[in-house]
Amino acid sequence: MIVCWGFLLVEALLLVEINVGLRRMRGKNEDESELEVISIRTMAQETLGDWGGTLATITYVFLGYTSMIAYSSKSGEILFHLVNLPESVSSCLFTTIFTMLISVGGTRATDQVNQWLTASMIGLLLAIEVIAAAFGGWSGLEGSGDWGKVPATIPVMIFALVYHDLAPVLCAYLGGDLKRLRASVLLGSIVPLLALLVWDAIALGLSAQAGQVVDPVELLMSERWSGVSYLVEVFSLLAVATSLIGTLLGFLEFFKEQLKNLSRDSKATRTLQVNLFFCPPPPLLTLPHSGYLSAQVLLSITLIISVEQNAKILQEPIGMGGWWARNKISFTAMAMAVAPTLVVSTIVPDAFSAATDIAGGYCMTMLYGVLPPAMAWAMYNREREDTSQNELSRVRPALLGVGIFAGGIVVEQILQDFSALHP
């Protein structure tokens, strides 16, 4: 787990460096009133070209949906145990609440809620771990583990430790301040690592005490004090909520960026069509001492001014129409991200395990393991003129190393799946 954490930390720092570099090239700064997020897709597009943008888009969309399905499905399962609400209803309600928080409250309100949820989750985790240590001790650390079982657990460890979908939003939120970004990534990743290491030690102790392979959560919840089960369920719900907020925030910003790009392209096309229609090139009227002047050009200028004025009038916010014009991109992105998630998590039973394996073993490893070194390599090649050869020679072995490690995880997952299909 520590190796996976170190690998993911290097990848996250690479993403931050690439994102900040692109922000500086675009001239973005922290004084902007609205967050301008440069998504993973745009980062790959601008560093690797069209093929990189396409690969990042497909992988990110698939990852976003599988992660959302996993969180939505798990929330329904937990709420069913807590309040006896049907899983399909509770998962839809849970996901909708946090979707509206992000869409209506914005990034800053979501950040405040997430901080409160995270603090509550850490407090509950400490209480659970103290109780679990009292019941099971640390005897699991004294035993010997089966290292042959490690490869099958890597997708779950990556899924538990990944936070990279928040990197573009974090870069925009902190205004591209590399010092604060590096500190946030490092400190923010250490907290869940320590919590998971302590929990693993306790889980090994509980399993050793039971004398058989069991789910340590179920073993803990079966103890005499019934309050433990509620603590575990509430902690699990808070963990799902904080994970859902991070994934959904990045996913919505991704769709909003793509919709804004489509909107800009559509407006540019309409403007070009108007200019081509109203501005025929050849001059038809010659005035003495004034050069060539076309009556049609004069007419076209008047018509273009009129069209632009009418367009500005139409763009003025008027009632509900103006409100929808200002918010249609946000709500369209929300529908694109959430609607398929709710449909699949409602129809497919026990979607959490399958979605976790797919997201951790393939999507996350490709998107946050293979692509960042490739993007950084391409960016260094592009900036070779401004960078010393010695610095490049120091960076490239590290990029090659993390890229090979990520590729090895993908290959191992493929072999694991093939062996499961053909026992």
TrEMBL record:
List keywords of the entry alphabetically.
Cell inner membrane, Cell membrane, Membrane, Transmembrane, Transmembrane helix, Transport
Instruction: Kindly list the biological process annotations in GO that this record carries.
Output: amino acid transmembrane transport
List locations, semicolon-separated.
Cell inner membrane
Membrane-crossing residue ranges in chain numbering: 6-22, 51-72, 78-104, 116-138, 150-173, 185-208, 228-255, 329-347, 359-378, 398-415
Among the Pfam families in the record, one is: Trp_Tyr_perm
Q: Name one GO cellular component term.
A: plasma membrane
Annotated membrane topology: Multi-pass membrane protein
Q: What is this protein called?
A: TRYPTOPHAN/TYROSINE PERMEASE
Q: Which organism is it from?
A: Salix purpurea
